[in-house]
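Deviation from plan, reported transparently: guanosine-5'-diphosphate complex.
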Amino acid sequence: LNPVKENSKTYKHFNNLTCMENTLVLVKPEGVKRHLIGKIIQRFEDAGLKIIGMKQVWVDNEFSKQHYSEHVGKAFYESLEKYITEGPVIAIVLQGVNAVENVRKVVGESEPKSSPPGTIRGDFAHMSFQHADSKGNPLKNLIHASGNLEEAKKEISLWFKDYELHSYKTMQDYFLE
Ligand code: GDP
Ligand code: MG
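Because the crystal trials were delayed, the predicted structure below was used instead.
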């Protein structure tokens, strides 16, 4: 049995009728350097989301432009590129029912100031757009999460090969069936 082949085959079995989705999360270098990886991952595990891929990657400027292609050219882009390339990130693919929306809910708003307590960006940061922009800084918000399903598909294929994603059962699956 070739586990790589087996996993990549089973990973693709979802169809349009299910609400089962995969989404990309990045613990940005700030989160890694602040030793927040465990606490951040805990939030997703607590919500019953399944980790189907995870690795540590230090991306370069070119890769940042691919990942943040929609933001290249904006006033804050240069600072954002510096922020995402200043150290390694933890890249995670999470799977679950309406995972894109559910993960964004756990993460909070783009702006930590507007993110309520209980969200990752609200609990571990408090920065505002205004302050970040007045300093020429990126909005330091610790974490990236795909904004919609289309973005999730594009980002997962940019960050992960099919064979790096795994199909397996967790306790949560018994409640979903
Ligand atoms: P996200 O999907 O919630 O991460 O937000 P966006 O896709 O709109 O922006 C990507 C990242 O760029 C954000 O997470 C912030 O780190 C940064 N960013 C977005 N908008 C601004 C802005 O207006 N000013 C600054 N300084 N940074 C921003
Ligand atoms: Mg976004």
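The longest helix spans residues 149-159. We consider this an acceptable substitute for the interim report.
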